[in-house]
Specification:
Layout lengths: L1 H7 L8 H13 L4 H29 L2 H6 L1 H26 L4 H12 L3 H13 L8 H27 L8 H26 L9 H20 L3 H18 L2 H28 L9 H27 L5 H10 L5 H6 L2 H8 L5 H36 L5 H4 L6 H11 L7 E8 L4 E8 L22
Antiparallel strand pairs: 1-2
Helix pairs in contact: 1-2, 2-3, 2-12, 3-8, 3-10, 3-11, 3-12, 5-6, 5-8, 5-13, 6-8, 6-17, 7-8, 7-17, 8-11, 9-10, 9-11, 10-11, 10-12, 13-14, 13-17, 14-17, 16-17
Length: about 475
């Protein structure tokens, strides 16, 4: 199913991950395949932990600190404000509509709020390869913001998880509150320590040793801390580990590791994550009331998220059409929802004796996450593919030909470019480490370069035609 969708879904802008999700749902709801789903359930949580660890490492590797430093205010607003708005709105609506306690309501908000890099990043790369948005750097802004948005959402989920699932022995509320900052300290310390140790590894070769060391280090940190009820610390440890190691490794080594992790994700872990998440859903869970109220929560949350995203970029130098494209790109949900949507349900079912009330809350969170994927991922992918060519600036294929030269030629051109005046030549090297793809965007004699390119030393605010 996922293979068919991957081949033919592109014509309809349907993300292949929907086929993977549908496959899992099919296996758990058709009598012929149900025994397979039941047999896989014992290993499902472990495999999804592997996939989630890989996702966290790719997020850490994908952060571009040079772009962040040049656009701190804009990136901070775009990554945080829409996310916070959606978390609050979904929590406020799900409390009365879905009958969730406040901790579970905010947990659901954190599960839903993250934008999907599996939809946004491929869409941005496709536009950049065809010359759209290369002058203003809007795709670069969205790639970096999507990564930062995911990190913020996942950390928020870790905090909500700590409040929702206090120590099983029953601890005082003050200890529960204290545990949040403690998990931040523990996770950051372990991540920095592991990343620092990995920085001493040899950086020669194709990157196989570094990739496997980083991957298994992330899995051990995440699953080990989760096993002692420190899930938030585990999430933060893996994020910091990938980020710290990436900052210490040289560019060729970092690019090789990112590319191999991306390949591992695409070949195995992405399919496993979405299929196993779908296999947790029984159609009997999806009552008309749950689907109806769930869609209402999602719709209102998404509308206010888009409004906040527009306000976040309203005072930026982007044109009105570019601002509308940013808003449209901030709609799809998929990867984060599949990765963390089932964690609460897994925790409830692993706790003995089983609490049927908490299990029903976990099922609700999982079902709303699946509904969000089904409805928003094709919507977001379609809007990106449709509005990108209409709303973004464009360079013709002939103008992009020089950008596909050899690395040696690009290095020599970049060296000569440094001696030219900033008014005549502004160039930037954009590397998307989370996808293992490197794209170089050069904006020549153009005043609409907004300073989103990493090597652009001009002040983008002085010479902009909005």
């Amino acid at each position: 199913s996922s293979g068919i969708n991957a081949e033919y879904g592109g014509a309809f802008k349907i993300p292949p991950l929907l086929g993977m999700l549908a496959t899992g749902i099919l296996f758990n709801n058709v009598d012929v395949f149900k025994p397979i789903a039941v047999n896989c359930y014992g290993q499902s949580s472990r495999v999804r932990s592997f996939a989630f660890s890989c996702l966290l490492l790719r997020a850490g590797l994908g952060l571009k600190f040079d772009v962040i430093k040049k656009n701190k205010a804009l990136l901070s607003k775009l990554s945080v404000l829409p996310c916070v708005t959606e978390i609050i709105i979904i929590a406020l609506l799900s409390k009365p509509l879905l009958n969730l306690p406040w901790p579970w309501a905010f947990l659901l908000g954190c599960v839903i709020a993250g934008v999907s890099p599996a939809v946004v990043i491929p869409g941005m790369l496709s536009l950049m390869e065809r010359g759209y948005g290369t002058l203003a750097g809007v795709p670069t802004l969205l790639i970096t913001s999507a990564t930062a948005d995911n990190i913020f959402t996942i950390i928020g989920f870790g905090i909500a998880y700590v409040v929702t699932f206090p120590d099983p022995e029953g601890q005082h509320i003050a200890m529960t509150i204290f545990k949040g900052p403690l998990e931040v300290i523990v996770g950051t310390f372990i991540g920095i320590l592991a990343g620092y140790m990995m920085s001493f590894m040899s950086q020669e070769g194709p990157g196989n040793l570094q990739q496997w060391t980083l991957f298994f280090g992330g899995v051990v940190a995440f699953m080990g801390l989760k096993s002692v009820n420190f899930l938030g610390a585990g999430i933060l440890a893996v994020l910091v580990m990938g980020t710290f190691a990436a900052q210490k490794w040289r560019e060729p080594c970092k690019d090789a590791v990112a590319e191999k992790l991306q390949r591992r994700w695409k070949m195995i872990l992405e399919s496993a994550l979405f299929t196993l998440t779908g296999a947790l859903v029984e159609l009997s869970y999806l009552t008309g009331e749950l689907v109806g109220y769930g869609l209402l929560c999602l719709t209102v949350g998404l509308i206010l998220r888009c409004a906040t995203a527009f306000l976040s970029v309203y005072w930026s130098p982007l044109t009105l059409r570019e601002k509308l494209f940013v808003v449209a790109s901030w709609t799809p949900k998929a990867t984060v929802q599949a990765a963390i949507g089932s964690i609460a349900l897994d925790t409830v079912r692993e706790t003995q004796p089983l609490d049927p009330v908490n299990e029903s809350y976990g099922i609700t969170v999982l079902c709303i996450a699946v509904i969000a994927i089904i409805f928003t991922s094709p919507l977001g992918a379609g809007l990106i593919a449709w509005l990108g060519p209409k709303y973004l600036d464009h360079k013709s294929p002939e103008e992009l030909l020089p950008l596909r030269s050899s690395p040696e030629k690009e290095d020599s051109e970049d060296g000569r470019a440094g001696s030219q005046s900033l008014s005549n030549h502004s160039n930037g090297n954009i590397s998307n480490h989370s996808n293992g793809i490197s794209i170089n965007n050069h904006s020549m004699n153009d005043s609409r370069n907004y300073g989103l390119n990493a090597d652009d030393n001009s002040d983008g605010k002085n010479n902009r035609d909005t």
